[in-house]
Amino acid sequence: MLTILLGVVFAAAALYVRHSYRKLRQKLLAIETVTLELPLLGQKRAGEKIKGTAVICGGSLAGLFTARVCADHFEKVVVVETEDWLSKENGVTPQRWQDAPPRARVIQWKSAHAWLVLIYYALERLFPNLLEMCKAFGIHVTTGDIGVHITGKHITGPYINGQRFGPEGSPKMLCCSRPGFETLLRALVLDPVAYPNVSQISGTVIGVVESKSERRLEEVSVKTPEGTHVIDAVLVVDCTGPGQAVYKTMPSAPPLDSITETYHPKMNYCTSHFALTPEMAERVPMSTYLLPAAGDVSRCLIMFQQDHLSIAISCGAWGSSKDLPTTLEGIREHVAGMGYTAPKHVWDVLDMLKEVEDTITSSLVRCPASFWTHYERVADQLPVNYVAIGDSVGRVNPVFGQGASKALIGAIGMNTLLHEVQGIDNDFAKRVHKAQAGRMKRFWSGTKSADYTHSTTIPAAGETLEHGNIPRLFVRYIQILAPTDFRAARLAWKNMMALDGTSIDIFSPMLFSKILWMMFTERVLGVNLKA
Ligand SMILES: Cc1cc2nc3c(=O)[nH]c(=O)nc-3n(C[C@H](O)[C@H](O)[C@H](O)COP(=O)(O)OP(=O)(O)OC[C@H]3O[C@@H](n4cnc5c(N)ncnc54)[C@H](O)[C@@H]3O)c2cc1C
């Protein structure tokens, strides 16, 4: 009798825990991710568009995502971009990376970029002609398996045992250069037939005018070759990247230092591009990502096919830039000295590239400090119609290729809130800042946690590199499990692709019990587990 009673109590408790876990997870999906908001993208607004102009300052990735979202909600959208050629024909013409004019304010213009699955899901909703345009721009649409290897072991992509990991449909992603992607995006957004209410002007935002009677921006001042131009604004979006140009011109804004966290990952990348023959392009994998395990050696390698028959190979290292290679032989040495075994196909590609070795061009980027500006903490002091999206909110170490997704997530969050309002009310910006902060956390904590495993990282003020040791321990166990366990692989993949991974997924019963067992094996039985 007692056994039956205990059994019933245990079963009820288990059901209760499962129910609570699911409920909490659903809540976290809304706070930490944009998964539930994706279906709203590209949906027609109920009622009339908001009267007046949304002024988007900065016409790079964040500015373009934001402009597209605003096109559905505002009578008029104006993008202001300081680099003149981006507002001319070249800015919307398919670019081979070799021919793309230089970009003065974007140091990573010629660095390898990953375009995560979230980006594909969003773009296909926002632009019905996406596939057609990708074709015209020579951009690959490929399966959403980015080819991640941790210490040389493959973390299987979106399908394992027939299970599909994406929220819907077959996961896909784009594979192309930064100039290719940005120009495609600009051509899509500035399509005068599809979005006649969107335009871009060439000029530098030099100031904003605040209302005398309320906490609201009224005008944006733009310096153009013809003189200063003033635009009346109902919404001002700061998409000027790490320069945070609009915030810096707001007279009433609290000092940036007082709301910005920062640390320095001391990470450097050297991206080398090679031209491919059509036969080589057939044989080279679309994408390979070689990463060290948490707390392990400091080198990584990222390899993507680019648009227009080329490949980008990015060698990265925490700590030192001295040995980053700019020759094929140097890349081979980088791979040989990674401290873990690279998969065979990487060596095959490097062998193949001997034939086109003389086409190599390289671009070294020393990553600046990572930072996160907490606008949400001072939202009550900021204008109610000022928001920031993209790198003007924060910049993370690009090792996981998240910058564009981070910008997109800001734009998606704003789209959801725009669907809920008739106009830009007094709570609008505050809600955008808050939503964005909830989502920025995963990008910030995830990369910081990885960076803090390297002794060369300069930690944030008041922290040591020990900070976050416990979550890092869990990440390490996931990395050990992922090559053979589909739940761990799914968790790793969803997080990597900026999809529906939440901070409690690691506690799902099956996965967590395995982690506890690994802890026991290591800590109590003294067995050393390795990723
Ligand atoms: C080495 C490296 C590799 C990276 N790899 C990846 C990757 O694989 N995947 C990924 O998603 N991300 C990657 N990133 C990050 C990604 O490139 C950035 O997150 C992204 O560029 C941010 O876009 P943004 O529009 O916010 O800012 P930015 O791209 O910096 O653009 C800001 C824009 O504002 C304009 N501007 C500035 N001031 C003014 C002004 N006063 N008036 C008007 N216009 C102004 C600038 O000209 C620029 O066009 C990488 C970054 C680095 C450094």
TrEMBL record:
Domain of life: Eukaryota
Identification of the protein by name: FAD/NAD(P)-binding domain-containing protein
Organism of derivation: Cylindrobasidium torrendii FP15055 ss-10
